[in-house]
């Protein structure tokens, strides 16, 4: 009797344990079915930390706009894991692998081209959707069918800048950083402007450099008609000072992208002499989405900055993909290919052949008003005018 009772007791315990496990599993499945797991990888710290802050800010405003404040799509909650890649490819890849290992089917973000170019093949290998953020490398476009971009690419910057160069047979120096972003700019300028008969050379500055004087002197000694500056991060102020000290602005047209507002003061006395191509400045677009974004941020005594709209577009793409694809990767890809929508910058479209993000760009000059620098929009280059050549999908 005692032996039989022991067997019965053990059986009851096992049944209870199995029942409990089944209940936990059922709850877990139910919890998973009521939400979408998304990994957002971005540079919260590091050289590109300021860009990451704008990206996240825009993303959260974008979610507020497209979900009407519910943070839900198809009645399901968005369960978003935010991970700092520190602008480092190895860190970004490690974060992505961890998220994929947890079953995450959507990866988003990063302003680092180096990180994005490592995440793209990882997305293809694991058949998950990846939407990059402000990272500008041209190679992200057409990387593979699983990879999309929310921001512009370097070629679009160059097409916008090309309008500043008049005549033929000019000498152009690309003054850049020794990074994927920097060399990507040089390649794009050579491809676009060099093809028009101009001579294009490069002065590349190591990312670890703190003294920019010898590089500024090298650019000046090339005696160029135009210096195209491709720079990112907090060292911009010291770089501009070095160019100024070496008289690089004298007799040379200097063109660069207009960075975030915090960097404008560091441009110094030359700020009003530079011709800027602008990915975005909040006073340029005239549409209801941008008006909404500006109005919401003004409530907090803020205005959108250069990469705020990229984060906003990430949210628009995410919600559209989920609405149409419901976390099925192939269906989400189909939903995004050819997607046309009104973004803060204006009308944008995802080219289905290579996933290029077609969008307008702006020509801007800074003027001094009341002791501060403000942007004046000189013109708009349409999405058609700045469209990069179609590239074959590589994966």
Break the fold down into its secondary structure elements and pairings.
Elements: H1 2-33, E1 35-42, H2 49-66, E2 72-73, E3 76-84, H3 89-101, E4 106-108, H4 113-126, E5 129-132, E6 147-149, H5 154-162, E7 171-177, H6 180-192, E8 199-205, H7 213-221, E9 226-230, H8 236-245, E10 253-257, E11 275-278, H9 288-298, H10 308-325, H11 329-336, E12 340-343, E13 346-350, E14 357-358, E15 361-369, E16 372-381
Parallel strand pairs: 1-3, 1-4, 4-5, 5-6, 7-8, 7-9, 9-10, 10-11
Antiparallel strand pairs: 2-3, 11-15, 12-13, 13-14, 15-16
Helix pairs in contact: 2-10, 3-4, 5-6, 7-8, 10-11
Can you offer a commentary on this structure?
The protein is of the alpha/beta class and 395 residues long. Helix content is 39%, strand content 22%. The protein is built from eleven helices and 16 strands. A seven-stranded mixed β-sheet has the order 8-7-9-10-11-15-16, with helices on both faces. The chain has a six-stranded mixed β-sheet with strand order 2-3-1-4-5-6, sandwiched between helices. Helix 8 (236-245) links the parallel strand 9 (226-230) and strand 10 (253-257). The N and C termini lie far apart (68 Å). Mean pLDDT is 90; it is low at 1-32.
């Amino acid at each position: 009797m005692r032996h039989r009772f022991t067997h019965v007791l053990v059986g009851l315990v096992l049944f209870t344990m199995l029942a409990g496990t089944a209940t936990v599993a059922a709850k877990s499945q139910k919890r998973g079915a009521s939400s979408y797991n998304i990994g957002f990888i971005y540079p919260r710290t590091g050289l590109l930390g300021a860009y990451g802050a704008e990206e996240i800010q825009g993303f959260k405003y974008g979610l507020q706009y497209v979900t009407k404040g519910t943070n839900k799509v198809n009645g399901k909650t968005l369960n978003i894991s935010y991970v700092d890649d520190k602008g480092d490819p190895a860190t970004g890849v490690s974060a992505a692998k961890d998220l994929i290992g947890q079953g995450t089917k959507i990866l988003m973000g990063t302003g680092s081209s180096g990180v994005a170019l490592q995440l793209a093949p990882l997305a293809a290998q694991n058949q998950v959707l990846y939407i990059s953020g402000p990272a500008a490398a041209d190679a992200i476009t057409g990387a593979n069918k699983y990879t999309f971009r929310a921001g512009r690419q370097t070629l679009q910057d160059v097409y916008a800048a090309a309008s500043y160069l008049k005549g033929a047979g000019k000498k152009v120096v690309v003054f850049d950083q020794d990074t994927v972003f920097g060399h990507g700019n040089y390649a794009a300028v050579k491809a676009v402007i060099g093809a028009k008969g101009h001579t294009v050379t490069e002065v590349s500055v190591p990312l670890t450099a703190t003294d920019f004087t010898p590089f500024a002197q090298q650019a000046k000694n090339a005696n160029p008609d135009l210096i195209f500056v491709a720079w990112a991060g907090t060292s911009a102020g010291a770089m501009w000072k070095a160019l100024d000290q070496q008289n690089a602005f004298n007799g040379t047209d200097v063109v660069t992208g207009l960075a975030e507002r915090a960097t404008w003061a560091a441009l110094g006395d030359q700020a009003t002499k530079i011709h800027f191509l602008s990915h975005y400045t909040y006073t340029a677009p005239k549409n209801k989405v941008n008006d909404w974004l500006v109005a919401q941020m003004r409530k907090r005594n803020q205005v959108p900055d250069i990469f705020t709209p990229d984060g906003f577009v990430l949210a628009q793409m995410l919600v559209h993909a989920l609405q149409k694809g419901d976390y099925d990767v192939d269906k989400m890809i189909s939903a995004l290919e050819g997607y046309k929508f009104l973004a803060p910058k204006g009308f944008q479209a995802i080219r289905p052949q290579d996933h290029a993000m077609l969008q307008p760009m702006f020509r801007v000059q800074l003027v001094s008003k009341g002791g501060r620098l403000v942007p004046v929009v000189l013109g708009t280059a349409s999405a058609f005018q700045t469209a990069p050549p179609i590239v074959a999908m590589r994966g």
